[in-house]
Write a structure and sequence with these properties.
alpha/beta; 418 residues; 22% strand; Alpha-Beta Plaits; 6-stranded antiparallel β-sheet; 10 helices; Elongation Factor Tu (Ef-tu), domain 3; 20% helix; 5-stranded parallel β-sheet; binds NADP nicotinamide-adenine-dinucleotide phosphate; globular; Rossmann fold
Length: 418
């Protein structure tokens, strides 16, 4: 392109087809109907998108938060985006061309002037975009908001102690005779009934399934969710979570509209001898419960070819740790468990990363073997956990950055944090 030609640069909003789980949340959220989809991809119409960012925070995967600086005249068309299997790289735009260009960039709320991508809410730690090689084949997107599955609440009880500050519920949904196959690590979507303050239907919220593939009760077509009633925002101000309160208040026998299943990567390996190294905080325990229970049931059936299970689980207090009682009943020979409590009176604040350091020997042993790592829960723990891996590896003369990269490529390092 000739720098003397007059061009207009825009920050084009794009959706990453590799990470998107096609849950339709963005399309339903977009106030200007700039987002559409076909049977393959969700895409953004550059001629309609005003960069308002309304769709960014509801997206459960972060696939929504991608931007490319492009000359407006050659913005990626809908047709081109429908064909993509992955996002195109940011094209180089020469400095003199940038200087010569007129720019729409500053006119777009939420866009940035720098040449890098906007920071995503998704995991910042590199995570596998492929499933373990021996994972079962997941069913995906069988039901959407327009054709939801109808589940019946089979039970809803509080997991946390009556005097605990956090109100975490174990909610069992029964699908009757409907086809709703699910694997450990997958999620389902639930939109609360009614409309939001703008009169639009509520967007879909994603919840990891806490049960193994053969049901919360083996052989039943049901599954469990782990839901914390949101009563405050991250800064501790009062904020009532619409979906979490809807779910925590559900009564037995009520009907719930369910979308999904979603998630093709955060799946467990099935081959003999594969180890699971699981790290979670709070309700991020849901997929770990599902995977642990799947392995426990296999063992119960005499399928003793399981690998090792190593779990790091963080909560403020024992009373606030979901599934605390049942966890304690698991035999140490089945699972090596390290619980981290951050707010127990008279005890130092302990996080999962502290426990990883103090269990360095067990961690290193697994890192040297056929191990699959799962991290789920608060986004804030990612950096601490990565530092802890780096420390234990350094002490054992393992090159953690190289091992991490290899595990990511081999579908052995999975992060799901919010
Ligand atoms: P929480 O109770 O707020 O926190 C759990 C523990 O993590 C507390 O001990 C907390 O300590 C600690 N923690 C805080 N910052 C940390 C850090 N930087 N490093 C390590 N530990 C840290 O957890 P929660 O409210 O249940 O949140 C769980 C998260 O999981 C949510 O973001 C949720 O969206 C996500 N999640 C949920 C599901 C699901 O299916 N429900 C699935 C996937 C992910 P202090 O507070 O004392 O500092």
């Amino acid at each position: 392109m000739n720098a003397r030609d007059s061009i207009t640069l825009i920050r084009q909003h794009l959706i990453d087809p590799e990470v998107c789980i096609r849950c339709n949340t963005c399309e339903e959220t977009c106030p200007v109907d700039a987002i559409t989809h076909d049977s393959r991809n969700y895409v953004v119409d550059a001629s309609l998108c005003n960069g308002c960012s309304a769709c960014i925070s509801p997206c459960p995967t972060g696939s929504i938060d991608h931007w490319r600086t492009v000359p407006k005249s050659v913005a990626y068309s809908l047709e081109a985006q429908f064909q993509w299997d992955e996002l195109p790289a940011q094209q180089y735009i020469a400095d003199d061309l940038r200087a010569a260009a007129t720019s729409d960039i500053a006119d777009i709320p939420g866009s940035r002037q720098d040449s890098g991508e906007l920071q995503s809410n998704a995991a910042t730690t590199a995570s596998s975009t492929n499933a373990p090689w021996s994972a079962a084949h997941p069913q995906l997107n069988l039901y959407g908001m327009k054709n939801p599955a109808l589940a019946t609440v089979a039970g809803n009880y509080r997991l946390t102690a009556p005097d605990a500050q956090s109100d975490i519920h174990h909610i069992v949904l029964d699908f009757g005779n409907q086809y709703f196959p699910i694997l450990e690590g997958q999620s389902i979507g639930i939109a609360p009934p009614g409309v939001d303050a703008n009169g639009k239907p509520h967007y879909l919220r994603m919840y990891s399934v806490a049960s193994p593939r053969d049901g919360e009760r083996a052989g039943y077509n049901n599954l469990a969710l782990t839901v914390k009633r949101v009563q405050q925002d991250h800064e501790g101000r009062q904020a009532r979570g619409v979906a979490s309160n809807y779910l925590c208040d559900l009564q037995k026998g009520e009907s719930v509209q369910v979308s999904g299943p979603f998630g093709a990567n955060f799946l467990m390996p099935n081959h003999p001898g594969s180890n699971l190294l699981m790290i979670c905080t709070g309700t991020g325990s849901a997929p770990m419960r599902a995977m642990t229970e799947q392995r426990r049931r296999r063992l119960e059936k005499g399928q003793s070819d399981n690998g090792k299970l190593l779990l790091f689980f963080g909560a403020r207090k024992p009373e606030e740790l979901p599934y605390f009682g049942p966890l304690l009943k698991l035999s140490p020979s089945f699972i090596d468990m390290h619980l981290a409590f951050s707010r127990v009176d008279g005890q130092p604040r302990t996080y999962v990363q502290d426990k990883i350091r103090s269990a360095a020997q067990a961690v290193v042993q697994l890192l040297k073997g056929d191990t699959y790592i799962y991290i789920c829960g608060l986004k804030g723990m990612e950096a601490g956990v990565m530092d802890a891996f780096d420390d234990v590896c350094n002490a054992a003369e393992i090159d953690w950055p190289a091992l991490h990269a290899r595990m990511v490529g081999e579908g052995r390092f999975h992060v799901e944090t919010y």
